[in-house]
Each structure stands twice: as C-alpha cells, then as structure tokens.
Amino acid sequence: MGIIIAVTSGKGGTGKTSITSGTAASLALMGRSVLCIDMDIGLRNLDISLGLNDRALMDFSDVALGRCPLARAAVSHPDLKGLSLLTAPLSLPASLTADKIRALLNTARSMYDYVLIDSPAGLGTGFRLATCGADRALVVATNDASSLRDAQRTVAELDRLRQVHLVMNRIQPKLLRKLRTTIDDAMNAAGLPLIGVVPEDPQVILCANQGLPLTSRGRRGAALACWNIAQRLEGKQVPIMKIR
Hints:
It contains eleven helices and eight strands. It has helices at 16-29, 46-50, 60-64, 70-73, 98-111, 125-131, 145-157, 173-179, 183-190, 202-209, 221-233; strands at residues 3-8, 34-38, 75-76, 83-86, 114-118, 136-141, 163-171, 194-199.
C-alpha cells in the first residue's frame, strides 16, 4: 500500500509546490510510482512546476464525487515514467467532504507507491481536506520569524500524524549569518525534526517558466536537496547537505 504525504505550511510563499514537484520527480526517478495531487484550490500551479502545464482535463473533485475514475483523471508525465498528476478544481464543491477525500486517497494508495499532496497555505478548510487522509506530513518553512511561527501552528494541527518533518526552503547562508541564526535555531522554533534543507536556487523559477521539472537540470542545488529528501522518505540515511 502506498504512503500519503501532505506537503504543507502555515504561510504562503514558502515553496510547497516546488518541494512537492521536486521530491515527487526524484521518487519517480528512483523507480517509484508517484501521484501528485494539487489541493491548492483556485491557484493550482503544480502542473507548471511539474512541466504538465494545462494537460489535466479532470480534477480531484471529479474523482472524489464519482464523476470520473482516478485512472482516467490522473495525467501521466511524458518524460518521467511513474509520475502522474491529479489537479485541483477552480473552486471547492459544497458536496466535497473529508470522507470523500479519504475514499479517493485510499484508491490512490492502492495504485501508487507515494501520493504527495500540495496543500494550500493556511489552516482553513482546504488545509483540513488536504491533510485528512495523510499518513505523514512535510512542513515547509523559510527562515523568517513569521514562517517559523506559522509552522508551529501547523504542527499543532497535525498532532494525529506519527511522522511530521520540517523542510527548510530557500535558504541563503549570507542571510543566516546576518541574522545570526542557524538551521538548528529554526528546528527549535518550529519544534520539528529536519528532513531537508533546500537552498535558494534560480533554477526553480527557470524550470517552471520553461515547463520543465526541476530534475531536468541535473542533481545540484534545489534539485539535489529534493533528491536527498526523497531518499530519506525511502528510509535511507543521507546526511543533511551543508549550504555554503
């Protein structure tokens, strides 16, 4: 049975979508079958980050409400074998409940090794739907005080999950030195164990604008960090990379 992982944060702009797509693509390159579900209703930019811009015709609400089977709605990546996307609707149907989302995820669990959910920012209805059927979560934060405080609030909402890890994203060493802070300080502020440190990397924006997954640019920078996160999800002991 597959593992359901919610990628979330309390604050917008932390880079959840790039972490979701980079980690999912890395798992696919490792030979795993991976379904990405974009649950950032309305914004839904995961298709761009994966290089699947506007390919999806059906969304997760169509599957959850019984209008379309998952196998038909999920769009397969043309270049990354084993990687698929289920996109979000433009608005949340009133009839879409947590029970229907859990049923959808149980179906996905039987078809894929990993299901990565790109959760919306904040702790509202969208967040609750995105996390209601998760086995574990990755909380994405940057090294500013408001992001780390929001990460703390997110952790409090995920207390039912046995495994919740922190991803520090868009890290700039010079800024850390100016702030006289460290990744350890961020871990203490968020109250979570660390699973990955991802550097600020212009390739993230360049790849998205060119319709390419981050992994297409080789294994360095943010792409390497996502590869290492994927390895840790697989249970491998990989040292946290030092960002200079």
